[in-house]
Amino acid sequence: MATDPPLALLQSRVLLALLAISSLVLQTVALAQAQAVSLEEASAHELQLAFRQNKLTSRQLTNFYLNRIRRLNPLLRGVIEVNPDALRQADRADRERKAKPHGSLSALHGIPILLKDNIATKDKMNTTAGSFALLRSVVPRDAGVVARLRRAGAVLLGKASLSEWSHYRFSSDHSGWCARSGQGKNPYNLSATPCGSSSGSAISMAANMGAVSLGTETDGSILCPSSSNSVVGIKPTLGLTSRGGVIPITPRQDTVGPMCRTVADAVNVLDVIVGFDPYDDKATREASKYIPRGGYKQFLKVDGLKGKRLGIVKPFFDSYSGTPVAKAFESHFNTLRKQGAVLVDRLDLADFRKIYSDSSEGVAMSAEFKLALNTYLRDLVVSPVRSLADVIAFNNKHKHVEKTDEYGQAFFIAAEATNGIDKTVKSALQNMTRLSRDGFEKLMRQNKLDALVTPESTVTLALAIGGFPGISVPAGYDEDGVPYGICFGGLRGSEPTLIEIAYGFEQATKIRRPPSFLR
After folding, report:
1. Which keywords does UniProt give here (predicted)?
2. Residue 266 · residue 258 · CB < 8 Å
């Protein structure tokens, strides 16, 4: 026979119902608040302001980007995997924001960041350089830059795709492809190159699939995709950011840098990731002398172009002669002048040109890659491969997924055939030192330049072999809607000056726009 439930049970049910209604109301209010904040194209500063005004939480923001990735990534292939702990990290950031006083948290606290998939994370995510050869390998620790991001309270959103093995397995014809995620697509024109190797970081920033991101560069891998996808990329001075825990090509040129939608965001990221790391001792110790007291944010000056001497390398612009791009750059030159810059365009490029007809970089890089990669692989806690020879064998065995027959692994095979730093490699290294001294450095010092100005990423080789910094800023779109950037390059440690120049140009032009068909 049925009996009436006791009073205590009824009270319990009523309480549960009230809690459910309360939770639903809170969720509805939170959703309305998040919708009131325009998250697409939002800068880190705007997001922090929304946090402080209780209009947004890190969890809501992280969910926004996770949903963007679910919707857009099947087409764009800019992200390899998302972090299963991203929402937990966002929740922790929300709790910390309530507990800690305003002003005590970093500019990246609670901000979701994507990391190129050659940057190690000691967590549930893989670090594979886009290859199945390193799937389920276990790294010994977070990369140096990742440890700094964690301390700053950033939310590690996921791993961005890349040209596999940082574009050191096959030629540039397959830029943006890796076995784990397929072909990355330029969100402005799906048939255009996204450029590599940090293609996924640039694609994801352009398509608003993350707030900020990190890429790496050996020769052009930050500056080129930034230019091709209308984002800002900073290639720092060698050693300014740690390469500890980064799958290497060559420690002589590798660097880690921000790729973001604005100069200010890139500078906020740079401020967090620079500094000494015992796992990249020599380079970071030497470069630490360049880090300014008070950080880099102080150089975000609207009038940053005033009084700057900028070298215009005319031959780099000649290939655009007669095109709308050439007209756009002429307009940019006028803007630079109006903002107070002095343009120097009668430059002696004789020694500078020699850099671009020399093969020393390739000779040295091949030998250095084998040594550096073997060291990295030996340090892994768990790994299916322990040497470059193992990776080559893996690719041959798994041709169907690594597309070895189609894409090949010519650079790997050439590197495996090297035998350390022999006389030929030493000669190449000496030659690059001379070319940097008598080329880029001489050009900059003799003409008392603050920066060299070039279109897109044409200057990357000169910056790469000397460990010099550069910043790419959106400069326009061609007749097919494909973006192109303007690059400002300088001598080692010149980031403060380059930031002033880049920010001044960005604020005077404000060219960047999101890809229209992805809205």
Report:
1. Signal
2. yes
